[in-house]
Design brief:
five-stranded antiparallel beta sheet; 188 residues; Butyryl-CoA Dehydrogenase, subunit A, domain 3; elongated; alpha+beta
């Protein structure tokens, strides 16, 4: 039977995976808030999707995948954006592996040392998330003058979900570290 610590750690692991998946797939990393001033169009950009829409329409009807038309849009993106896409894609894949090994650790317990493997995957996921979020923040803040809030170009909710997933990943990494240490030392 899983301990209370393992249940809490697994909850944060699942929360991390879900938050990474949502941030990965949603087109709201950058929002152009100048609609409040110009009333022309609304612009959002995610890691894989770019959307434009009239100010009166609240649906995403005019979206383009960055890899559509033989990577036409992707080719215009700066190298740092490609690095963020790669780092975040790797973080999603490795967090999925962490969920698989975390589930296996609950089943086989101390026999398979699954907590240590899960902790290792979570450590790597945390480093990838920190690198991706920090790079995106630095480049958009300095080069595009995007701000956390206000008028103009702002960080969208998908970006903030990515920031939150970094925090939940850190919490689950620490919890799985304690679980892995308990495997090696009895009486913990």
């Amino acid at each position: 039977m899983a301990s209370a610590l393992h249940c809490i750690a697994f909850f944060f692991l699942l929360l991390t995976f879900l938050a990474v998946a949502v941030a990965f797939s949603c087109p709201e990393w950058l929002l152009d808030q100048r609609i409040l001033i110009s009333r022309d169009s609304f612009y959002t950009k995610g890691l894989w999707l770019r959307c434009q829409r009239p100010s009166s329409d609240f649906r995403y009807g005019n979206c383009e995948w960055l890899f559509a038309d033989n990577f036409r849009i992707q080719k215009d993106e700066p190298v740092w954006f490609l690095a963020v896409q790669i780092l975040f894609s790797l973080a999603l894949a490795i967090s999925a592996l962490a969920v698989i090994f975390g589930s296996c650790a609950a089943i086989c317990g101390k026999r398979c040392r699954g907590f240590s493997v899960t902790c290792g995957f979570l450590n790597l996921t945390f480093l990838l998330l920190v690198a991706a979020v920090a790079l995106f923040w630095a480049e958009t803040y300095v080069k595009l003058q995007a701000r956390p809030s206000g008028d103009g170009l702002v960080m969208g909710w998908s970006f903030w979900v990515a920031v939150g997933s970094t925090g939940t990943c850190l919490i689950s990494t620490i919890l799985y570290y304690f679980l892995s240490r308990r495997d090696y030392h009895t009486g913990y």
